[in-house]
Design brief:
about 290 residues, Hypothetical Protein Tm841, Chain: A,domain 3, 2 domains, about 40% helix
């Protein structure tokens, strides 16, 4: 992990910049490993037990439990020591680190990473970035940075690429329900009440690091169509990620529908992790697209 360059990219180059993100990024595990990205797990707190997102609590298990209980889980950010340990481990094989995280307006993860970066400053320089995104919006930015690191880029090169990617990324998602989003305090309760009364499926995006309602549809399938149109309207694109919560068949169909707009190897499909599933619940389908 981190600074270990996969043969798929360039077996001759040993990267000197480590890339760290958190599990809200929803990067597929194999892809994170291939790109050498260190993923710090969010904690899931549920019925007296604490689990690490993507380590002790996997998505399939999480969503199965979520729909069968009235006791909703909560999340907790990684601790400062979690980040310190990751940074010090990377310092053994890296010269510097980029740590890029979920929007600071949604989580204290960014602040914990900043404090950790300060505490290890005598050992290794760490630049921390607030992506102002989550899920694969964050994931695409971390991946872009990791590719530059793997190609032997400097810390400045890697940071510049991450910031450029953030500016190029657009997100849109359709939610089957706002029950979990409201309970987690991720969106205004009045918006949720309106959506419930009108029996509509909200369309949400990111703006200035916060989740905003940008539209609604009566039928879920119409929301999926809006996502497909969203991708086409933003062409040309360098990469697209489709993230679902317990609805892989719908996600794969959306990927197939977009095959005329983008090559299949430019479209990533993955399941939403528990750290965001807590606040979104089942029935989410979202798209993160990076403009070319």
């Amino acid at each position: 992990m981190g600074c270990m360059v996969p043969s798929k990219i360039n077996a001759e180059v040993i990267g000197l910049v480590g890339v760290v993100t958190d599990s809200t990024s929803d990067i597929p595990v194999a892809l994170a490993q291939d790109l050498g990205i260190e993923v710090i797990p969010i904690y899931i707190l549920w019925q007296g037990q604490t689990s690490r997102d993507g380590v002790d609590m996997m998505p399939d298990e999480f969503f199965q439990r979520l729909v069968s209980t009235d006791v909703l889980p909560t999340t907790s950010q990684p601790t400062q020591p979690d980040f310190e340990n990751a940074y010090m481990k990377l310092s053994k094989r890296c010269d510097s680190i980029l740590s890029i995280h979920v929007s600071a307006k949604l989580s204290g993860t960014f602040n914990a990473s900043v404090q950790a970066a300060r505490s290890v400053a005598d050992h290794i320089p760490v630049t921390v970035i607030d992506s102002q995104l989550n899920s694969m919006g964050l994931g695409l930015a971390a991946m872009a940075a990791a590719r530059i690191a793997a190609a032997g880029g400097t810390l400045k090169d890697v940071v510049d690429e991450a910031r450029k990617a953030i500016s190029d990324i657009r997100m849109l998602g359709v939610f089957d329900t706002l029950k979990y989003t409201i309970a987690g305090g991720r969106i205004n309760k009045s918006v949720g009440k309106i959506a419930s009364i009108l029996n509509i499926k909200p369309l949400l995006t990111f703006r200035n690091g916060e989740v905003h309602l940008v539209g609604a549809v009566r039928l879920y399938r119409k929301g999926v169509e809006r996502l497909a149109n969203f991708v086409r309207e933003n062409l040309p694109l360098s990469e697209v990620a489709i993230v679902h919560s317990a609805s892989r068949a719908v996600a794969e169909q959306l990927k197939a529908d977009l095959s005329s707009a983008l090559p299949a190897d430019k479209i990533i499909v993955n399941q939403l992790g528990a750290s965001l599933g807590v606040h979104g619940g089942p029935g989410i389908l979202l798209v993160a697209a990076r403009r070319a």
